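Hi there. Long-time user, first ticket. I'm pasting a complex I've been working with (about 539 residues overall). I'd like to know whether the download I got is complete or cut off, because the file seemed smaller than I expected. Thanks.
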Amino acid sequence: MIKLDKVSKKFGTGAFGLVDINLSVDKKEFVFLVGPTGSGKTTIFRLLIREILPSEGTVIVNDWDLTKLPKHQIPHLRKKIGVVFQDLKLLFDRTVFENVLLPLEVTGVKMEKAKQIVEEVLTQVGIIEHKDKFPIQLSGGELQRTAIARALALSPEILLADEPTGNLDSATSWEIVKLLSDINEKGTTVIMATHNVDIVKNLSKRVVGLEKGKLVRDDKKKENPPSHKASDVAKAITDKSEGQRKKEDKV
Amino acid sequence: MKFIKSSLRNIRRSPYQALAAVLIMMLTFLTISFFTFLLAGSSRVINFFESKPQATAFFKNEAKQSDINTLESQIKNTGKVSSVRFVSKKEALKIYKQQNKDDPLLLDLVTADILPASLEVSAFRISDLSGISETLKGSSIVQEVIFQKDIVSTLVSWTAAVRRIGISLVIVLSLVSTFIMITIIGIRISQRKEDIEIMRLIGASNWYIRWPFLFEGMFYAVIGAVIGWTIASLALWYSTPFLSSFLKGIPILPVSPIFLFEVLLAELILAVILGFLSSFLAVLRYLK
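Hi, the file is complete. Here it is re-exported in full:
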């Protein structure tokens, strides 16, 4: 489904964004992309949506060789990949509903059908009651959910989430991760970039580690036992919040 | 028609830019309308003179009918003449009354005796007219020959000058309005740079992003054209009574509404082209 073959990215400044990355992600997989800031997580995402081209190597998504993808095909690629951007990239002069409607508008989905899809997606991410609010009226978690809803609007085969828990408190972070995990269970390949060690530790998912643009770790997950499902996450959340409560008690 | 909605929102949000764009387009189309009216009018005046008898001989009062008939057949026999028409004193009075029917004072003053009988001669070719008028002048019963070739050639040179001035002015104004539109649409694009970036990242095609800007440009041009045309048409309508008395006897006023709507239609087409072209240039320049 996704394959990076000997990919290097050298930026105009001469700095290396990525060095000789080999990575493949199967259909319906859930992958954590971890590493400190500047390690190249976002660069990988930008390569996957063909926002930038690699300096060397090939990037393959869904049988498309992105290094050879003609420019007019880029919109088709991007419709297959939902992205939750690190800075969210929501339109602040549109309501939550309109923001989520945007990808459907762009693809020319009929208005009636599109509105129905938006309602469904907003219900799925749990912010249907905020649909007429503007982004400025929302909390961090709600903004994150809006961005996720927009990424899901076109039912993409792949969902890329770039630091979706970056600015959130841990309880909200867990809710977001649970949401992504649910989405993954419904058949979407999810790659989530994060530097939240807690989350990665508590979920038994494949972890790919990056450091200074190099691949330093790839725990090809031992077959996900059947128990590692949403229930697993739920348990982690419970453990987590209990842990927190204990901590708070101590304080 | 989603893009129309987003164009209209752009316009609502920065009305001064929209106003500037509409005003410059209005100025351009106002000028185009005025010169169109002027040129259409003057070419019809020329047609009128050209279709009129090209030389008119007025007879002395003492001229006898038999002499006149002799002269008429002499002219006809040259074979260079397409038509010869004799206008008697009575007919001349009738024509005069028709032309001045709204002015009883002028009618009272004039009797058939004052007006001369005349012979209106049309030639096949303008070049033959000099010979014919010489023949007419040579006759002892002819008082005066009016030779309309001079009027026509003066008018033609005037019209050519007006056309040259008009075309240059329209070209300069079109260029100015195109550049102003490119700038305004460019500002629009920079204002929405972030939105455009986001739309690209979630899979919007180039045309999806371009259309609102192209539509906006066409919208300004069309509104400008409609306002410019309306002002020019109202001015024409308002000055029709004055112009009619000035152009007495030349049947070009009042201007038919069909002509006005043809001008509007042509201007709308031009506006769409101009608006599309200038915003397309802006889009090419600012949306890479």
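A couple of notes from our side: Chain B has a mean pLDDT of 81. Residues 53-147 of chain B form a domain with the Alpha-Beta Plaits fold (CATH 3.30.70.3040).
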